[in-house]
Amino acid sequence: MPLKLQPPRHQTSPNLAQPFPWQAYLLMLPAVGIVGLLFGGGLVLALLQSVGAIGLLGSQISLTAYQAALTNPEFLRSLTLSLYIAVVATGLSTVLSVGLALLLRTAGRWASFACQITLPIPHLVGIAGVLLLLSPSGFISRSLYALGLIQSDQDFPLLVNDAGNIGVLLHFLWKEIPFITLILLAVLRSINPAYEMQAQILGATPWQRFWNVTLPMMRTGILSSSLIVFGYIFASFEVPFLLGSTRPRTLPVLVYRAFTDSDIARRAEAIALGIILSILSLLIIVAYSWLVSRGRQNRQPIKGA
Amino acid sequence: MLRKGLIVLVIVVLFLPFLPLVIWSFAQGWFFPQLIPDQWTLQHWSQLVSPASRVIEGLLQSLAIALITTILSLLVGLPAGRAIGVMEFPGKEALKLFLLTPIIVSPLATLMGIQFVLIRLGLNGTLLGVILVHLMPTIPYMTLVLTSVFANYDIRYETQARSLGASPVQVLSQVTLPLIAPGIVVGALFAFLISWNEFLLTFFVGAGRVFTLPMVLFTLLQGGNNGLVAAVAITSVVPGLLFLLLASKALGNDTALGGLGNV
C-alpha cells in the first residue's frame, strides 16, 4: 500500500553527506559506463577512423581527411547556415516561451495541456504537417486563393525548401516552444511568490517586477532549456534535410551526404566533418557551464526546482 | 481578455499543421486550388494494414524498441538519479555534465564510430543494436528527471521504515517507489517519446533492416503520396499522445520537470 506522506520541500539538501562516496560511484557506474562506452567509445573510434588509424583504406595516419573537410568549399557556408538556424530558432523560441509561460502561469490546466500538444509529436509528423500546410499548393495557399488574395500557387511565397529556411525555423518554433514552456512553467510554479509581491509592495512597475525579480529567478531554467534546444537544432538532420534549402545545406546534412557518397574515399572526410561538428557542440556546453558558474558567483543562489 | 485571446491564438497555431494532415488522410485527389476535396476515401487508411506499406511492421518494431529502451534506461537511471540527487561526492557536477553530452552533442561522428564496431559484432541492422544506441539520449533524460525528484526526496522516510523493521525490499516497494512514482512516470514518458520519435540513430544503425515507423514516414515523405503520408503521420502520433494523457497528472509534478530546467 503506498504511503500518503509527502516529503517536505527543502531549500537545501536534507541528506547528510555520505561517509562512503564509493557507494555513489557504484550507483553512477551503469549510467556513466553505458553512456561513456557508447558515446565516448563511438567518438574515439570515429576519431581513429578520421586520422586513418583504423578503417577501410589501410592504416596510414594522416590529417588529409581534416584538410579535405576544412577546404570543402561548402563547409563554411554550411556551418554559417547551421549556426543561423540554431541561433534564430533557439532565440525566438526562448523569448516566445518566456512570454507563453507567463501567460499560462495563471491560466487553467486545460490551457497548459493544450499548449503541450506538440511535445509528443515526432519531428517527421511535424515536417509532414508543415509541408502540407506551407507548400505552394498547401492548405494556407489554398485558403488565400479561396479568399481571392492570390491568383495562383505562383503568387504564394516559397516557405519550404526555401533559401531563407523559413519552413525549418517555423517547424522548430512549433516543436520547441511547448518544450521550453513546459519546463519554464515548472520553474515558475516553484518560485516563491513572496519575492514578486514584495517588489510590488515596494512600488515596482510590472515591467520592473518581471525584469528584476521574475526573470533572474527563471535564469537557470531558461539557460538549461535553451541549451538542450540549441544542441538539438544544431545537430538536427531530418528537419533541414526535408524542409530546408537544397544549397547550402546544414552541417549534419553535409556530413550525411559525404558519408553516403559513392566515392568511399569521402568517408574519412565525412567522419572528420562529424568530429568537427561534435567539437563545436562540446564548445557550446563549455560556454554554457561557464555562463552558469558565472551566474552562481554573481548572485545568491535561488533554488528553482 | 487579451490574455485569453493570445492563449487561444497560440493553441490554434499549434493545432494548425494537423488540419491538412487529417483532411489529406481521407482525401481522394485533392488538387490545388480546392479548399476541400471533392471526393473522400478510406483507401489511405486501408493501405496502412496492407503488409506492402510496412506500417504495421514499423509500428510493432517502434513499440518494441521504445518499451525496451525505456525499461533499460529506467533501470540505469534510477541508481544514477539517486546518487546525484541524494549523495554528495567529489566530481558530481562533472559527471552530471558528462551525462549531458549525448543530448547536446551531435551524434553523427559517434554513430559512424559505433557503426564500425557494430558491423564487426554483427549487431548492425539488428533490434539490439538500435536499442543500444537509443540508450544514448534516453539515459541522460531519465537521469536528469530522477535526479531532481531524488533531490526533493527525504531519505529519512527510508530510515524510519528500516527502524520499524521493514526489509530492504519492503522499503523499496512501499516507501521509495511510491514517493518517486511521478518522477518515474515523467522520466519514462520522455524516454519513450525520444525512442519513439528517433530517426537518425535508427537510420544509421538499423541499416534499412530495422524499419521503425519514423523510417516508414521518412521514406514516404520523399515520395509523393500525400494521403498515405498523412495517414501514417496521424498513426505515429497516437502512442505518444496516449502516453502523454496517461502521464498528464505526473507532468503537473514540477519537481520532475524541474530536472530539465536545471541541468
Biggest chain-to-chain interface with counts: A-B, 119 and 110 residues
CATH second-level architecture of the domain at 72-120 and 161-298 in chain A: Orthogonal Bundle
CATH class of the domain at 72-120 and 161-298 in chain A equals Mainly Alpha
Strand content of chain B: under 5%
- What's the order of the H and E elements of chain B? HHEEHHHHHHHHHHHH
* Main sheet makeup of chain A: none
Outline the structure in words.
The complex is a heterodimer of chains A (305) and B (263). Chain A has a domain of 187 residues: Orthogonal Bundle (MetI-like fold). Chain A is 68% helix and 0% strand. Chain A is built from 12 helices and no strands. The longest helix of chain A is centred in the first third of the chain and has 33 residues. The N terminus and C terminus of chain A are likely disordered. By secondary structure, chain B is mainly alpha-helical. Chain B has a two-stranded antiparallel ribbon. Chain B contains 14 helices and 2 strands, in the order H-H-E-E-H-H-H-H-H-H-H-H-H-H-H-H. Helix content of chain B is 75%, strand content 2%. Chains A and B meet through helix 1, helix 3, helix 4, helix 5 and helix 6 of A and helix 1, helix 2, helix 4, helix 5 and helix 6 of B.
Q: What topology does this entry show?
A:
The complex is a heterodimer of chains A (305) and B (263).
Chain A: H1 21-50, H2 64-71, H3 73-105, H4 109-114, H5 123-134, H6 139-146, H7 166-189, H8 194-201, H9 206-235, H10 238-243, H11 251-259, H12 266-298
Chain B: H1 2-15, H2 18-26, E1 27-28, E2 39-40, H3 43-49, H4 55-86, H5 92-104, H6 108-121, H7 127-151, H8 156-163, H9 168-197, H10 200-206, H11 213-221, H12 226-246, H13 248-251, H14 254-258
Antiparallel strand pairs in B: 1-2
Helix pairs in contact in B: 2-12, 3-12, 4-7, 4-9, 4-11, 5-7, 6-10, 7-9, 7-10, 8-9, 11-12
